[in-house]
Design a protein that fits this description.
The complex is a heterodimer of chains A (307) and B (299). Helix content of chain A is 33%, strand content 22%. By secondary structure, chain B is an alpha/beta fold. Helix content of chain B is 36%, strand content 23%. Chain B contains nine helices and ten strands. In chain B, α3 packs across α6 and α6 runs parallel beside α9. The chains are: A alpha/beta (307), B alpha/beta (299).
Amino acid sequence: MSESPICFGLYVPPQPHPLLVPEQNEGWGQLRSAFDTARQRIEESDADLILVYSTTWPSVIGHQIQAHPEPEWTHVDDDFHFLGSMPYKFKMDSDFAHGYNENCGERGLHSRTIAYDGFPIDTGSVVALKLLNPDNRIPACIVSSNVYSNRAESIVLGKAARDTLQQQGKKAVVVVVATLSNRMFTEHIEPKDDRIHSAKDEEWNQKIMEFFGQGRLEDLSQLSREIHGQIRVQKVVAYKPVWWMAATMGQSNNYKGEVLAYAALHGSGGAVIQLTPTAGSIGDKEFDEDDVEVYSGDRDVLDKGMN
Amino acid sequence: MGEIVAGCIAPHPPHVVYADNPPQNEPNSEGGWETLRWGYAKLANKLKTLDYDALVIFTPHWQTYIGTHFLGLPHFKSKSVDPVFPNLFQFNYDLGVDVELSRAMHDAAKDAGMVTMMMENQDFRIDYGTIVSAHMLNRDWDKPIVPISSNRSRHYYSVEVMNEQARALGRACRKAILESDKRVVLVSTHSLSHRHFTTEPPIPEDMSKQHIYNHSNYVWDMKLIDLMREGKMQEVIDLMPEFTEQTMAETDSGSISWMMEALGMPDYPAEIYGYQSVIGTGNVVAAWDPNPETREVVL
């Protein structure tokens, strides 16, 4: 068995509170501390790359991959502009981005690299990279989340990332930027009053963290459709980040899981979670959803059977 | 006393700016989407004949989940790069905001019980929906704008809730405008049906590749346009939940519901300036002129 190209994976929240105002709420401060712990672990790893999949970077034309060597801007969040500005200058691994793009094509996906001055890098990616890699010690790459893509496409997108790591002989820390439950309060709240939006969201968040804590990544991947129905505001067609994470890291439960922090972020569930590949596994389930190697597009079921 | 002198549906695919090759936009094209752009040009010419102080633009691409936000600073200068079509739209803008009117609408909405906020961060980047529609309606940029964010109540609740909340916001904005001394043009910037192709031709302006995503969306778009021509806007708004669900329409932002309520729910015919598909979506340029003496039958 070849050595895994993954040092470890992180699941982190996109909201700017841990970056901009961690002192305003105890939970936000705990998330910030967990980001700091993760940053230190990245520094101590032998990672060549930080590979980010961000749910706050939606795309329409296939999958977009950030390839600008040094994107620079001052970002402001659409909702939380009053918390402050986020100036950034990142270092990207353009070679990896181009290789990833080529491998997406090999696996039937439509994708493209993005390298434009002033391109709006999303809040989640900015927060993650500023907190996890503040000195740009390790180059990064960011991939978008296509609004129309579903399971097959997300799985294949992850496999193309793994292909590229293996081809280029690079080791990566994989970062998924997403909340657990994503329902925020729709009105202003005082920082001290922040809490998970509902008991149902809290219960599901605890269940997801239990699985993460046990390293059951593939189990969570298989549960994604259920999670989407239960605790995700239906902005997109599916809850995809764990599909991509599992396909990139390896579709198994062979991980050591650690929930570093969990707190409400304006009602949504924010957690910093680490998954490290191990030899052992956990769980008692087998799955019958198809594993997908190559994306062959829509099945055009609407046009079949008409003649 | 203030007045609403017109309301416009002004779609914002960046393709129309890209195709126009204005000096502010860095990419260059060989044209494309003429039916939309010529329609836009005719509507822009009409607006030149109207006496107005500001464009009030409800935009789906400033998406807020915590209420409705209004711009609270008078001047923004920066570059807008479309996150979805960055190859087409890298637009250098320098624009003015009518903060007095913006705050008046904010206050009216707040007084009516809505969750609102003024956006006062100078680093904030203006969304491309606002910029595309403002540019196509007023290429001289000689009027201030008042962008209003789109509260995503459709996602959090339902299309029906979106419709009602947007209409309430429209009533509040109408009140604020009429109580001001401003003459304004309202802009509802969005496509009708909004299912995109997920691939792009090598030459984006290759018009041989442009068509509606599916026939169902086309039929729905035409149904709405027919109702607009007949002046049946109450029926359009009543149909809005079903239309939005069936065609993944960008009306999920609430913008047309907002504008129709602010216009007082027109029962007179719309001026239709053009309809065309852009990467699968259905787009109409249309206007409502409350003044029967200047109202035209365009198409």
